[in-house]
Amino acid sequence: MKKTKCFALCLIATSILTACGSDKDPSSTSETPKVVANTAPSVNAGADLIVDENQSISFTGTAEDSTGTIVSYAWQQTSGIDLELSGLDTSTLSFTAPEVDEEQVVVFELVATDDGGLTASDSISITIKNVLVEPTLSLNERVTVEENTEVEITSIVEDSNGSIVSYAWQQTDGIIIEIDNLTNNSLKFIAPEVDFDTTLTFDLTVTDNDGQTATSSVFVDVTNVAASVMSIPGGSENIVIDGQTVEAALNEVLVHLNDDVTEAELEAVFDEISNNDAGIASFDDALKVLQIRVREGASENSLITKIGEMGGVRHAGLNTVIESKNLSLISNYSHVIKNKNTVIQYIAEESTDESLFSGDYWVKAVAADKAWDALQERTLAPVTLGVVDTGIGAGQISIESSRLTRLRAQDNGQFGVVEGDDTETDSSHGLWVSSFIAGHNTSEGSAVYGVDHSANLIHTDIYVKRCKDGSTTEECSSESPIKTYITDLIAGTKATIDSGASIVNISWGDTSTCADDSQVRLKSNRNWRLQQTNLVEYAKEKDVLLVYSAGNNCEKNDDQLLVDINDIAQDAWQTNTLIVAATDADDKETDFTRMGNVVNIAAPGDQMGWGNTDGSLGVGTSFSAALVTGSAGIVKGINSSLKAAEIKDILVATSSNLTLSEESKALGTTGPTQLLNIHSVIQTADLTVDSVLDVKAPIALSKGDKTTSQLSFTLPETTVTAIDVMFLIDVSGSYTDDIASLKEQADNILENLSGRGINVAFGVSAFSDFPIDGYGHEYDGDEAFYLLQSVTTDIDAAKTGINNLTIYSGNDYQESQLEGLYQAVTGAGRDIDNDGNYTSLGDIEPMNIGWREGALKVILLATDAPFHDSDIDENYPGAGKTEVINVLQEKGVTVFGLQSGSIGLATDDLDSIVLATKGQTFLLSYDSNEIAAAISSALDEALKEIDLSIEVISGEQWVETITPVLIENVKPNEEVTFEINLKGIKNASLEELNYEVILWIRGDGSAVVRRVVIPITVPTLAD
User: Fold this and answer.
1) Is the dihedral of CA 854, 362, 428, 343 positive or negative?
2) What is the pLDDT of residues 349-378, one digit of tens each?
């Protein structure tokens, strides 16, 4: 309430003025002036006020002085809280009302002073109210972040009449996030890993010192980002697809893109995925494989159908579990151990046969013993082989630790080096496969033998125990099953390649079994290979050979590689993979092995050992593949410049003959008919060391483009760098003196042939006739073909072969020259009664002749008799002239005839063969005394000139034509030119693509005169 204080001072002054002087008008009148008393001024400080805290206030007091003037003002605060005041000596007082927690009253007094020194005062009371104002809170309404990245959301808060005393964050929607501190002005957390784009919602409530609050929400959109490595599936499920129930990764689809997929095609695929309740879990750009997660309840099959038909997509399918399900394949072994791999492993009881170790028959079956002898005292170039399999224990003794690197799948999808033991899961299969490939330990008490004793080995374990959530921790329940998926195999193999392996063994396969219908097996086989095709193309790009086990599903007619017979990806399969079948101790295909034209080669895979201490034996194509992998490593070690496609060619071309069983023939099986021969492999690898490798400058070529690459070179002085000479000698009764001459001159002949500055190998064979009535005599020891020495660079062995020539009967005038030629070229054997065995009278067992791939092939046919010819005599059990000429020309073999005696029927038969193969006949005396000179002349003729042609080893689809197809009669030091007309078959894509065309220039269809590599690059769209 306003109070006024009044102070009065009354002063009365009387003043009498008296006028003196006479200057005034005497008539004027005089008045007495009034005396005025000074009174105190009146003051008004103003009406009392009510104001808000933080309000700026100015108020003016007034003062009046009826008897004078106001000369000063003076404000003073008489009560209340301290304030900062301005204008204390003016009529106007100003201040800012402070922030108050409760209502406050302040009183001010205004004192006014007049010119007479009198003062008056008045007071004003001002009430300052505590104003409750909510704080202002500002957050970004929506934030977009990538999964697995740090998120920081900062609030902007203002409180106009106070301060913020607390912050409270709360998640109200979305995947629950663990956050350490929810009471800061900012929120920090790591965005969760998501399969699909998802939204998280958070509320922030702030409270000020008055208890006033403000709340705001923020939406955090977490986007799924495709990982660069394949992620671990979150479980498995059974799905019916194409009528077959398969176990596959839960809610997951794999999309295999073409390597030349365009950006537009890729964007269309991404859009289709997004529009079908799916997200990209991973995208391996190098493999061009998308791992897609499908929302719960959505159809994988529907998405597979939609995406599979889109441009740029090779294949869409499930991420299947690769786990063995065909354990009843062979049941007559006494001890069976389950291998949880797609490829089965059976373990049988120890054999009682005396041997180096149990199950060592394979050593001789593939001529590994001869190969190891040939490699003694030799140092091979460093080679790294790879195995993608189950784990291998740290305590294994098969492979020296210095040669072994172990990789294993990690929780993050990467593969890391294993230092300790990784065998909490079954490791027997991985140990066995690695031991067959590269095991070697002959220390005291051990006799471990694999194929390659010097190669380094990267062993990648993809057989991992996983918890139900997909993680690989060892702490999960013991009931958690082991699951290996297609993605594990693909990623593991890629990691093995990236770690430096040049040849990789993959003893896995599809999940079809012998119990399935053939059509189910075939479809499963093709889909399995389709799932591997991007990996195979990656291997081709990296010049790596992948060796696959054929599998144990009993299918005998697997003749089609991929689902689409026109798929250009077949080229990579045909050049950079080997698919290996299994044979038994009788060199017959096993009943469980898969067969067909897609299978390239066979190797032992039945009841095998490697020196394992328990003496148990293994069964399965897994181990057949391992033998081939080790052999490929030896080839690479002999000549490290060989490309993967060349290594494959050598392994297949130098193989022995595999005769199919009658059961397989009855089913229509046509292949494979090649059985691994490691010794022949080594001999061929040796001669490639001296071959010229011509690597051309890269050629840029997009789809539809055409260009020409010229290959010009000069034929060397020796024409060829290697030649194989096979002696095929008549040992019928009439040739006694001729053989004596040959034996007598053997040293001179062999030394002359081997002293020409080229790599020469020799073989010795003979013929009489079939020991069948009307042709030859059983009791005289007649046979249609004898192999006394396979092709070898060992001159002493060749001499021994010649000295072991023995005369037999031959009975009638004609002999088995044509059958001898057929067997000398092919080693195919002859099953006369077609009983599937080679034990009947006259049968010829299949054999490895030992021809070296890449050498000029020459047969010296010495005889004095005409030929038995089944083209003329349909009862004759041997080959006919038409068949023989065809096989000679197909294999590029030149025949030189050495005829003793006078011109006659033998001359006509010889001439028909030598003319067809561009050879020559030399007439000798009745005892062939001139045989050494004739053989020398024959070799001169063989090397005098050759016909040149080109074989495409890899990249055939890039080659449109080769001009000319054949250059005939090329002489030493003569320059020749081929034109390779190339066509582009790949689209310009997201990144530069690299391919190679590999050519072998052949002399007379056999000798490798030159190796040529033409690199091809497909530029990007930007280029």
Assistant:
1) positive
2) 333 445 778 899 999 999 999 999 999 989
